[in-house]
């Protein structure tokens, strides 16, 4: 019976199943960084162009990462990235969007 127990060597945020998922992790982290960047840059009126760009790129990346995700941790961060990218892009578009 001891061999049925899973050994946990530490807490894992993305790979909760213990397997390796390099493509899914890379897409999740990229989407998360772009989403947070879009959110931060979207709140600043002077950086509306870069906020809109990060949001427009980050949202499809997060959607695709959600489509191919394998674990709950990846899905959790993908949803956060989607929300941040959408809200950041909306604020950036409100402040001027893609106009320089």
Tags for this entry?
100 residues; mainly alpha; 66% helix; transmembrane; membrane; FUSC family protein; transmembrane helix
Please provide a written account of the structure:
With 100 residues, the chain is mostly helical. It has one domain. The protein is 66% helix and 0% strand. The protein is built from three helices and no strands. It has helices at 22-43, 48-68, 72-94. The longest helix is centred in the last third of the chain and has 23 residues, at 72-94. The protein is elongated and about 50 Å long. The N and C termini lie far apart (65 Å). The relative contact order is 0.22.
How do the strands and helices of this protein lay out in sequence?
Elements (H helix, E strand, L loop, with lengths): L21 H22 L4 H21 L3 H23 L6
Helix pairs in contact: 1-2, 1-3, 2-3
Protein name: FUSC family protein
Organism: Thermomonospora curvata (strain ATCC 19995 / DSM 43183 / JCM 3096 / KCTC 9072 / NBRC 15933 / NCIMB 10081 / Henssen B9)
Keywords: Membrane, Transmembrane, Transmembrane helix
């Amino acid at each position: 019976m001891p061999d049925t127990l899973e050994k946990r060597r530490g807490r894992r945020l993305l790979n909760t199943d213990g397997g390796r998922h390099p493509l899914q992790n890379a897409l999740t982290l990229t989407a998360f960084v772009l989403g947070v960047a879009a959110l931060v840059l979207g709140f600043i009126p002077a950086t509306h162009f870069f906020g809109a760009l990060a949001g427009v790129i980050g949202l499809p990346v997060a959607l695709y990462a959600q489509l191919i995700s394998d674990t709950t941790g990846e899905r959790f961060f993908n949803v956060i990235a989607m929300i941040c990218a959408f809200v950041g892009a909306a604020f950036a578009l409100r402040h001027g969007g893609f106009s320089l």
